[in-house]
Design brief:
This protein has 2 domains: 296 residues, Rossmann fold (3-Layer(aba) Sandwich); 105 residues, no CATH class. 28% of the residues lie in helices and 26% in strands. The protein contains 11 helices and 19 strands. It has a 7-stranded antiparallel beta sheet, with helices on one face. Helix 4 crosses helix 5 and helix 8 runs parallel beside helix 9. The termini are far apart.
Length: 426
């Protein structure tokens, strides 16, 4: 789980902006005791008008972990994730994240530009006291970075030298785990690296898995298949279950020839021209009889729901962190509430951070009573930079509705649209 995160000079964020998930105690189902005496909110919701910068915070969260775990094989390759605020593009980006992995707290700070990681520090708390994991400083182009390791790691001298030799100026020290075969004393590196890869996910999931792939994977896993069947039935979609199927693919001769003679990669051509197509059929129910409906006839909302169930399964069966952008899009608000409540009441040490336009979530008692899970995002008129304010920072009395306060504009983060009458004359 993430304890706190801040970012500076990234996308629409110019000045330092922070998300802090610390809670005072175990007062709600929205709070998890991640380690003894430390309580974190399991849910984070970002509200704001279109183009306010909600999604950019998720992208920044995603980027700090990508920097931490993904290596580079070529020292000349730039850092693609460097996207500074346009008015301070000559300055580096800075990020900080404090998070938990396998019950241990880690604090990571990084400063970088388009070519180099200028500084990074990783501390951890193996015995509840802060210890250095490593720190590195950029020395110069084509010069080995200055890297110092914490004594508690007990790394051999030759292991330290091997890490230094394999750390290029454009990737983190930790990511060396993925590009070099190191000795057994590198175990703390490998354990942290593996935990992040397994448990911290990209925005909207780790990859663009299609619905067919998601459902095939679920169908092959009895526990996950039961979860999907249960959630589809409870969603009142009239679906009893599903099964993978193979369909014949009819491709007109002229289309086939055009694809074969085109400039597409051979692997893509083979995929497009396969004689059969993998799909899924759903078993639906009526009082007269059960019947099957193919995937292509399902609604857009049903497809969206199936995709986000993949994240929900991980969240309630393990310790995962997911970022879901515009959650609630294409879903009925009751179905959105149900999805979030399943997560809240069935997860332990997982965390879900979302952006949403579904403001009626703010009227739910559980959210209104735990305002620390909500952030309101808006652009500063003077700087055009995104600013993030936590819901419990406005000093609202506990008897005042968060939803009503937001609706009347008391909390900001709403578009100011002006008159509905449009004058097209000069």
């Amino acid at each position: 789980m993430i304890r706190d995160f801040w970012v500076k000079n990234y996308l629409s964020i110019r000045d330092k902006q922070e998300l802090n998930f610390l809670a005072k105690g175990p007062a709600s189902e929205l709070i998890s005791e991640v380690i003894e005496g430390v309580f974190l909110y399991k849910l984070g919701i970002l509200y704001g008008s279109n183009a306010s910068g909600k999604s950019n915070m998720l992208i920044a969260l995603n980027e700090v972990f990508r920097l931490l775990i993904l290596p580079k094989s070529d020292a000349t390759k730039g850092i693609n994730g460097w996207i500074p605020f346009v008015l301070t593009k000559d300055e580096p980006t800075e990020m900080h994240v404090s998070f938990y992995a396998n019950g241990i707290r880690y604090d990571y700070d990084v400063k970088f530009n388009d070519k180099y990681i200028l500084n990074e520090e990783l501390y951890y708390y193996p015995n509840k006291s802060k210890s250095l994991f490593y720190e590195r400083t950029f020395v110069g182009d084509n010069v080995q970075a200055d890297i110092k390791f914490g004594p508690s790691l007990k790394l051999q001298i030759r292991t330290q030298e091997s890490i230094r030799e394999n750390t290029l100026n454009n990737h983190s020290v930790l990511s060396v785990c993925r590009k070099a075969a190191l000795k057994e004393d590198i175990l703390p590196f490998n354990e942290l690296h593996s935990w992040i890869i397994e448990n911290y996910h990209d925005v909207d999931g780790d990859e663009e898995k299609g619905v067919v792939e998601i459902l095939k994977e679920a169908h092959s896993n009895p526990k996950k298949c039961k979860f999907y069947n249960t959630m589809l039935q409870k969603a009142d979609l009239n679906i009893l279950g599903f099964r993978p199927t193979i369909e014949d693919r009819v491709i007109p001769t002229e289309v086939r020839e055009m694809i074969q003679n085109g400039d597409l990669p051979e692997r893509m051509k083979e995929s497009i021209l396969m004689p059969v197509n993998e799909s899924v059929v759903f078993v639906n129910h009526s009082d007269d009889n059960d019947f099957e409906i193919p995937l292509k006839w399902q609604s857009k909302g049903t497809i969206k729901y199936i995709k986000i169930l993949d994240a929900l399964y991980d969240l309630i069966t393990g310790s995962h962190v997911y970022y879901l952008d515009e959650l609630g899009e294409d879903l009925h608000n009751d179905l959105l509430y149900y999805y979030l409540n399943v997560f809240i009441f069935n997860s332990d040490k997982s965390q879900l951070i979302i952006t949403s336009q579904e403001t009626t979530l703010l009227s739910q008692d559980l959210i209104n009573e735990n305002r620390g899970v909500v952030w309101f995002v808006e652009k500063n008129r003077e700087t055009a930079s995104s600013e993030y304010s936590r819901g419990d920072s406005f000093g609202l009395h506990k008897n005042l509705s968060l939803y009503n306060s937001y609706r009347i504009g008391r909390l900001g983060a709403k578009p100011e649209l002006g008159s509905i009458f449009i004058n097209l004359e000069d």
